[in-house]
């Protein structure tokens, strides 16, 4: 029998809420604490520091919710989502009492050592909106959207980009990612914003009028992009951090929430494994109090071992997706314009479609549509890159190799005489320099 335990979840975002569901499904007592008021209440005022771009849900997050033991959860979530089938590149042409009480709580000596790294990438982001078409069409529900709702829209630039992600009300949440220096320049001269968009993101001013661009840029905060890595993720048997608390990442792979939801699935799979091992261990003590104390101690030990295993298992994967998200920023704003990048992507997609037996897949496909560990995705992607380079080099060199073999076969004596002559000349030249 698995010992009933108390779980305290701090943070009621998607990751914390899913963790609470996992724990409650296993019969544990669950308490949830959240700084913000109930976000389901339309009168709730969002806090600036809790802003986020639209969330992307992929296979990892779906799989984590699939294992939550709530059959209608996915049905409810899917009902509030819009499928994105690909990228579209646009070229140029509660009441706060608990929080206040926590400030007075003595936490002296309650810190744990933690390896921590926080990086700012020198880019600020600002939010804009594309409004929906006012007249709805019963014949075509997509008529409410000004552009295709089934794509992630990207206007790339070498050092910046503008993206648009659909919302279920027909609008698009748009984000401008811009280096700090250029952001400050626009802050000094906001009247130049429409001209800036026309120059770098053609077509946007047809979707968002210049006046609205200026208003959004002046009204909305210009926030930094941060990447956080840390280790370990646990403290003995008492605490573990998941999601953004452990690995906040830049949003360019759409994996922040998905990685956090996957954290929950991985954590509870490890906890379940150790709990099952404990339940199979017989207790020999006949004294109820002693047996209870023994069971509690065993549970704490098993939990500590499980949390340590979770840290060992998850840190490499979390660090990998942090790095991938940063790399994908370069890909989205610049690499999509590179012929070399497009050639490799085309080759990998063709091999994935027409030679599936090779197990060849793009890195994006492995990350977004499978549950393979992030660290393994990186390793396999690097291997595929090495294979492509080797094949390319072989194709380039093969005509010369074939020609040399054919010439050796047809004219062996001439090849031998030529080689001997070149060798003698090289030796004589070397002696003359002495």
TrEMBL record:
InterPro entries, per the entry: FAD-bd, FAD/NAD-bd_sf
**Which cofactors are required for activity?**
FAD
A GO biological-process term: kynurenine metabolic process
Membrane-crossing residues?
387-409
User: What superkingdom does the record give?
Assistant: Eukaryota
Which parts of the sequence belong to the FAD-binding domain? 238-280
* Keyword Transmembrane helix recorded: yes
The UniProt keyword set, sorted, is: FAD, Flavoprotein, Membrane, Monooxygenase, NADP, Oxidoreductase, Transmembrane, Transmembrane helix
* An annotated GO cellular component: mitochondrial outer membrane
Provide the protein name. Answer: FAD-binding domain-containing protein
| Lineage of the organism | Eukaryota, Fungi, Dikarya, Ascomycota, Pezizomycotina
């Amino acid at each position: 029998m698995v010992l009933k335990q108390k779980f305290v979840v701090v943070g009621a975002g998607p990751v914390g809420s899913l963790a609470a569901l996992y724990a409650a499904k296993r019969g544990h007592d669950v308490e949830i604490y959240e700084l913000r008021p109930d976000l389901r209440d339309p009168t709730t005022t969002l806090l600036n520091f809790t802003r986020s771009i639209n969330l992307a849900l992929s296979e990892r997050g779906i799989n984590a919710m699939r294992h939550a033991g709530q059959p209608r959860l996915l049905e409810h979530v899917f009902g509030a989502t819009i499928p994105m089938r690909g990228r579209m590149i646009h070229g140029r042409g509660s009441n706060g009492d608990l929080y206040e009480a926590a400030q007075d709580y003595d936490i002296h000596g309650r810190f744990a050592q933690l390896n921590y790294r926080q990086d700012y990438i020198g880019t600020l982001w600002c939010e804009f909106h594309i409004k929906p078409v006012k007249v709805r069409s019963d014949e075509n529900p997509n008529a409410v959207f000004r552009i295709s709702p089934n794509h992630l829209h990207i206007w790339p630039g070498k050092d910046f980009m503008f993206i648009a992600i659909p919302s279920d009300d027909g609008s698009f949440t748009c984000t401008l990612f811009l280096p700090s220096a250029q952001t400050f320049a626009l802050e000094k001269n906001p009247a130049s914003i429409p001209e800036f968009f026309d120059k770098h993101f053609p077509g946007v001013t047809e979707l968002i009028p210049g006046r609205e661009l200026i208003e959004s840029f002046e009204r909305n905060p210009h926030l930094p992009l941060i990447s956080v890595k840390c280790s370990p993720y646990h403290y003995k048997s008492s605490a573990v951090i998941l999601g953004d608390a452990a690995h906040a990442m830049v949003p360019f792979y759409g994996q922040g929430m998905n990685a956090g939801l996957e954290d929950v699935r991985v954590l509870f799979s490890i906890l379940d494994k150790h709990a099952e091992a404990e339940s199979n261990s017989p207790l020999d003590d006949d004294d109820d109090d002693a047996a209870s104390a023994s069971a509690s101690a065993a549970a704490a030990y098993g939990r500590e071992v499980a949390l340590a295993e979770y840290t060992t298992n998850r840190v490499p994967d979390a660090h990998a997706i942090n790095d991938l998200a940063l790399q994908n920023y370069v890909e989205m704003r610049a690499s999509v314009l590179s012929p070399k990048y497009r050639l490799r992507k085309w080759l990998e997609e063709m091999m994935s479609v027409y030679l599936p037996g090779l197990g060849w897949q793009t890195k994006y496909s492995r990350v977004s549509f499978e549950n393979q560990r992030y660290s393994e995705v990186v390793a396999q992607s690097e291997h595929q890159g090495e294979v492509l380079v080797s094949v390319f080099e072989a194709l380039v060199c093969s005509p010369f190799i074939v020609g040399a073999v054919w010439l050796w076969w047809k004219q062996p004596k001439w090849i031998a005489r030529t080689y001997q002559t070149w060798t003698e000349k090289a030796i004589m030249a070397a002696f003359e320099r002495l």
